[in-house]
């Protein structure tokens, strides 16, 4: 169990944190789902707070390792393998999940059926290694999520950062949607993105307040 | 120069002699008349044979199956071994470069059959013939390329058959009646219609385990069991000598003498019998047992000293974890190819696309990091994409940009972070300046844009990265 350290988030998860030795799915919200850029950092931040090497199964050449280092995942800890197709990612992930010494296994996928998700979940349970599937949407909007055996399903979307900074960039913010969680409650939060140790934070002004509906957010941005 | 009856003839020549018009087999007296001051030395066939044997053993580094083709040829069966070096073309290039460095002048050819490769190396252009292209590649060669005796070549010439293509198009029955079985057998072997057994070398003085069977075996389950058994027998050998296997060769001797082999590599020396057996078993489906296999030989063809206990890694993980990681890496490399499993390490370069370098997955942790104060995108496009952007004043971030037909209004931005070109790396980078801006759209999405020159100089805008940490 790995708590996020963000009160609202941890309360929604059974046991008060993210289950280790389980499969977690992360979708990217927003129009740039194909790149899953926020999802990468969300997973990287979680792995940064665990011990041991990480296996990262790549789907294309665009992952930029310095960004992972900035959320606390040291490059010495990450072994990459170039698995360009879903059909290569899944067996590589399963192989990694059999090796107990790993902190986690990350796979970038375009889609995952129910059976592969079951296999990954079982392998993760067996070894105690945590698995993350980052969904890279192919073309247009995300399709309706398929049934899956994953312990949780998240959606990470970029959110406007602090507006008080006078047109300068503050810490990035995400809208986190816990869409599905076995034994827990779905929920939505606005969080400050991972810091150099991989920790999320609850924004000062928004603390303990659930995320505003999409429309209200957009209006706020226009103001 | 060698003695041929009463005459002395040239046995072998160097490149300079070839340029001067000399050829092997030429009488020595004529050669000396053609090239005054010619330096002749007696031929030493025994020394040549010994050198060829040494070269053959050295070639075991490329593949487990190497056969001698005296007096001056080697046949290497690279099936199932080229993946460890990075493919067929890389293997050929590496072999050629190493031979050249030792002063050996070599002609290399790679083809589906030993006979085809022989013909192309000696009579053709050499190089790699793609699978199925052998027929077309051999057709224009002279019939002597089929390893025929000079008498048969002369007899064929009498009936007007000079090229291999002429032989393939001639009716077979009359050919056999007139010239005996030799031309057709050689032709069929070169084209792969008839198999060609070769006598392969075995490396001396390396850890080895062999199994011979009274009844030929062919079922996959039995082969799998024997692989496990051979590994278990090899490991005590390695333990005694303090070695770990970096490369294993498993040679299958078939009833019909058509040997096959598999070769696997490990990321670090290993004495883990179960792990080694698993690596070999993964490749077993590539072996065609034919009518059965009567002998299997497992060789640790490359080894390295290995301490009694596996060393522990510092940053990568705790002690047992790293040994475990090595087995994982071996399996993935075998499946995907060795160059597709790696770690990334920082490079001191201002250019983002040069800031990362691949290192071997188990190389010692460097501890190095990129500068901590520079925010970087989570995704970096391989090739920056052009965007249309508008800035109010020079050096100010843009107000909006259009990327792939979509317009993005910029709500917040930071920059520029000026990155100078590395003119000492490439000439065409001189005078190139990139001004990077981190921008956030109204929806909160972050992008990494740059302008490839000052606004006055009409610098264009590019999108280079997405997301930010």
Automatic annotation (TrEMBL), chain A:
<feature type="region of interest" description="Disordered">
    <location>
        <begin position="148"/>
        <end position="168"/>
    </location>
</feature>
<protein>
    <submittedName>
        <fullName>Protein ImuA</fullName>
    </submittedName>
</protein>
<dbReference type="InterPro" id="IPR017026">
    <property type="entry name" value="ImuA"/>
</dbReference>
<dbReference type="InterPro" id="IPR027417">
    <property type="entry name" value="P-loop_NTPase"/>
</dbReference>
Automatic annotation (TrEMBL), chain B:
<dbReference type="Pfam" id="PF20114">
    <property type="entry name" value="DUF6504"/>
</dbReference>
<dbReference type="GO" id="GO:0003684">
    <property type="term" value="F:damaged DNA binding"/>
</dbReference>
<dbReference type="InterPro" id="IPR017961">
    <property type="entry name" value="DNA_pol_Y-fam_little_finger"/>
</dbReference>
<dbReference type="InterPro" id="IPR050356">
    <property type="entry name" value="SulA_CellDiv_inhibitor"/>
</dbReference>
<feature type="domain" description="DNA polymerase Y-family little finger">
    <location>
        <begin position="212"/>
        <end position="312"/>
    </location>
</feature>
<protein>
    <submittedName>
        <fullName>Protein ImuB</fullName>
    </submittedName>
</protein>
<dbReference type="InterPro" id="IPR043502">
    <property type="entry name" value="DNA/RNA_pol_sf"/>
</dbReference>
<feature type="domain" description="DUF6504">
    <location>
        <begin position="390"/>
        <end position="464"/>
    </location>
</feature>
<dbReference type="InterPro" id="IPR045443">
    <property type="entry name" value="DUF6504"/>
</dbReference>
<dbReference type="GO" id="GO:0006281">
    <property type="term" value="P:DNA repair"/>
</dbReference>
<dbReference type="Pfam" id="PF11799">
    <property type="entry name" value="IMS_C"/>
</dbReference>
<keyword id="KW-0227">DNA damage</keyword>
């Amino acid at each position: 169990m790995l708590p996020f350290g963000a009160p609202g988030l941890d309360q929604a998860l059974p046991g008060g944190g993210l289950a280790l030795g389980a499969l977690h799915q992360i979708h990217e919200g927003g129009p740039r789902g194909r790149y899953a850029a926020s999802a990468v950092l969300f997973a990287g931040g979680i792995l940064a707070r665990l011990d041991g090497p990480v296996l990262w199964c790549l789907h294309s050449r665009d992952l930029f390792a310095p960004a992972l280092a900035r959320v606390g995942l040291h490059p010495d800890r990450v072994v990459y393998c170039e698995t360009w197709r879903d059909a290569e990612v899944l067996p590589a992930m399963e192989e990694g999940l059999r090796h107990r010494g790993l902190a986690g296994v990350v796979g970038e996928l375009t889609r995952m059926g129910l059976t592969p998700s079951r296999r990954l979940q079982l392998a993760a349970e067996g070894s105690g290694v945590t698995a993350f599937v980052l969904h890279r949407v192919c073309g247009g909007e995300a399709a309706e999520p398929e049934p899956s055996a994953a312990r949780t399903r998240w959606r990470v979307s970029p959110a406007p950062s602090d507006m008080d900074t006078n047109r300068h960039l503050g810490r990035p913010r995400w809208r986190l949607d816990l869409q599905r969680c076995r034994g827990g409650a779905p929920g939505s939060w606005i969080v400050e993105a991972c810091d150099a140790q991989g920790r999320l934070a609850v924004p000062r002004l928004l603390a303990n307040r659930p995320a505003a509906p999409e429309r209200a957010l957009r209006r706020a941005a226009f103001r | 120069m060698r003695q041929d009856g009463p005459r002395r003839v040239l046995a072998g020549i160097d490149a300079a002699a070839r340029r001067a018009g000399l050829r092997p087999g030429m009488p020595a007296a004529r050669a000396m008349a053609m090239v005054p001051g010619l330096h002749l030395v007696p031929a030493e066939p025994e020394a040549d044979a010994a050198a060829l044997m040494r070269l053959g053993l050295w070639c075991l580094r490329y593949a487990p199956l190497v056969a001698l083709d005296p007096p001056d040829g080697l046949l290497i069966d690279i099936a199932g071994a080229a993946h460890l070096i990075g493919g067929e073309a890389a293997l050929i290039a590496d072999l050629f470069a190493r031979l050249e460095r030792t002063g050996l002048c070599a002609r290399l050819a790679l083809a589906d059959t030993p006979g085809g490769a022989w013909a192309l190396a000696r009579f053709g252009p050499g190089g790699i013939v793609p699978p199925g292209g052998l027929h077309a590649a051999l057709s224009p060669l002279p019939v002597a390329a089929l390893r025929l005796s000079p008498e048969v070549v002369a007899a064929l010439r009498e009936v007007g058959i000079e090229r291999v293509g002429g032989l393939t198009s001639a009716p077979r029955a009359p050919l056999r009646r007139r010239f005996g079985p030799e031309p057709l057998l050689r032709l069929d072997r070169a084209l792969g219609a008839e198999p060609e057994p070769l006598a392969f070398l075995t490396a001396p003085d390396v850890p080895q385990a062999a199994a011979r069977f009274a009844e030929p075996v062919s079922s996959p389950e039995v082969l799998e069991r024997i692989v496990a058994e051979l590994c278990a027998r090899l490991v005590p050998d390695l333990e005694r000598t303090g070695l770990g296997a970096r490369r294993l060769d498993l040679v299958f001797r078939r009833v019909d003498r058509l040997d096959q082999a598999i070769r696997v590599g490990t990321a670090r020396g290993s004495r883990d019998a179960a792990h080694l057996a698993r690596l070999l078993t993964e490749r077993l489906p590539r072996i065609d047992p034919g009518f059965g296999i009567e002998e299997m030989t497992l060789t640790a063809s490359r080894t390295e000293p290995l301490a009694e206990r596996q060393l522990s890694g510092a940053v990568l993980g705790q002690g047992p974890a790293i040994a475990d990681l090595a087995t994982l890496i071996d399996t993935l490399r075998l499946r995907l190819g060795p160059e597709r499993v790696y770690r990334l390490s920082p490079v001191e370069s201002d250019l983002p696309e040069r800031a990362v370098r691949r290192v071997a997955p188990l190389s010692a942790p460097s501890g190095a990091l990129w500068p901590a104060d520079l925010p970087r995108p989570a995704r970096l496009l391989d090739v920056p994409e052009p965007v249309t952007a508008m800035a109010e004043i020079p050096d100010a971030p843009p107000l909006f940009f259009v990327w792939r037909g979509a317009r993005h209004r910029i709500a917040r931005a930071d920059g520029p972070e000026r990155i100078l070109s590395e003119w000492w790396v490439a000439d065409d980078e001189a005078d190139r300046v990139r001004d990077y801006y981190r921008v956030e759209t109204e929806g909160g999405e972050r992008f990494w844009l740059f302008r490839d020159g000052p606004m006055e100089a009409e610098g264009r805008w590019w999108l280079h990265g997405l997301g930010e940490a």
